[in-house]
Design a protein that fits this description.
The chain has about 300 residues and is α/β, with parallel strands linked by helices. It is about 40% helix and about 20% strand. It is built from twelve helices and 14 strands. An eight-stranded parallel beta barrel has the order 3-4-5-8-9-10-11-14, surrounded by four helices. The protein has a two-stranded antiparallel sheet with strand order 1-2. The protein has a two-stranded antiparallel ribbon with strand order 6-7. It is globular, with a radius of gyration of 18 Å. The termini are far apart.
Length: about 300
Amino acid sequence: MTSDLPQVPPVTLGRSGVRSTRLALGSANWIGKVGDDAYVELLREAFRLGIRHVDSAPSYEQGWLADRLTEAEPPDDLLIVTKIGRYKADNGVEYDFGPDRAVRSVHDSLEELGLERLPVVKVHDATPDHWDEIVGPDGTLAALRRLQAEGLVGAIGTAVGNADFAAMAAESGEFDIIGSYHHYTLLNQDAARRIHPHARRHNLGVINISPFGGNILGTGAVPGARYSYREAAPEVLNEVRHMEQRAQAHGMSLQTAALAYSLACPDIDVNVIGPTSIEELHADVAALNVAQEFGSFRDIVSPVEFPNDWF
């Protein structure tokens, strides 16, 4: 029953002061999977339920997203987040973390998204090899801070699959928001040890991207299931089957348990989800209640952690 669904509550992303909501919509998962009209209806339902955060990137279809958002008549307080560093290319994607490219990307995103200001810009899929180029004296972070001073950029953060880079960024305190993926799930809690303590110390916003571990905690151990966007190893598949049984013993699906586990973490402000239907969206929102009411996630979480760096 949709009448039983809670409203998604607002949150503030640490010292940045940026207002968001406990759930955010990640647009990459929908592209090519949902038709234009269905996507608009999904957006409208998300807004009705209180979601006020949409995540995008230059390597996604930002122009397409902007058109669908216009059709969906978004609320005035909608937060649209974009990124720099990972871009579309003829052969798929390319990576360029240089300051000049970042500045061009900000202006391109302003135009594509139809915005006068980007409230959050995140460094997308960087690794430790890019650290000096990004945080050096004349690096990308300095260029973004200049755009920030000009009023074109708000908070600056990360959206990375490399746990080492996320931990370095959190420890440095140089970024306002730390977003990473697959580092706090039922299969891996690396972020709890290496990222969250530094984020608390610096009062950084924390965004958990893909609490379903890059698909497998959303699909279960089905043929072709992927962990951290790669084919899941046999030992991961085996453990997920056991977790499914444990979740069912507590009267919930693995998908609900995976999201509720992340929602219950006090160190995570926002969880980015990618539902492809209104039914999936409703299930994700319902997990908010489970996160508040269920106290035995230790009975479901994997007793063995599985490495999951995307890069």
